[in-house]
Amino acid sequence: MFSRFVRRLLRGQTLKEWLIEFLRFCTVGLGAYVVDVGLFNLLAYHWPIDLPFDQSMTAKTISVSVSIVFAWTGNRLWTFRSKQQNSRRREFAMFVLVNIGGMAVALACLAVSRFVLGFDSQFADNIAANVVGLVLGTAFRYVLYRYVVFNPLASAAAAPRSH
Question: How confident is the model at residue 59 (pLDDT cuts 50, 70, 90)?
Fold first, then answer.
């Protein structure tokens, strides 16, 4: 059973190839994390203009959106460059949809912290959105990037067939 799991995880790669891919994913993710957290804190706590709605929730939405573009570029050009799909638009659309799911995870963690638990400090916001939300959202994103977004076999199966 374990060897079947490993074969599915590797999908024809050697353990070394998979490890390199995973480390590249983590490196791009770290860069996106710096963009996300830096921009979030700038907009939520140091921006001279009030953002609409809840300052932290709006700031998180903006920071994640910017980090999505950063992450797609890094993952497309470096991490999964050998697994790119033919259609950049389709790939980017799928990437954005997966990241909206990841953003929803982070926003849900932040919302629970702020509106259910009543924590509204900068420290609590960062723990909820940028630690708990990051861990859960990263696992979600990696699985979907690997098996859906940057998977040429998945895009071929989803392509319309002509009769």
Answer: very high
CA separation for the pair 38, 115 (Å, rounded):
23
Residue found by looking up tokens 């697994």 in the block: 83
Per-residue pLDDT of 8-34, as tens digits, reads: 667 777 889 889 988 998 999 999 999
User: What is the SS3 assignment for 23?
Assistant: helix
**Cα–Cα distances in angstroms (integers) from residue 157 to residues 5, 13, 132, 151, in the given order:** 22, 21, 34, 10
pTM for this structure? Answer: 0.72
CB atoms under 10 Å from CB of 97, counted, come to: 13
Asked if 151 and 83 touch (Cβ cutoff 8 Å), the reply is yes
Q: State the residue for tokens 């994103």.
A: 141
Q: Which residues contact 121 (CB under 8 A, 6 or more apart)?
A: none
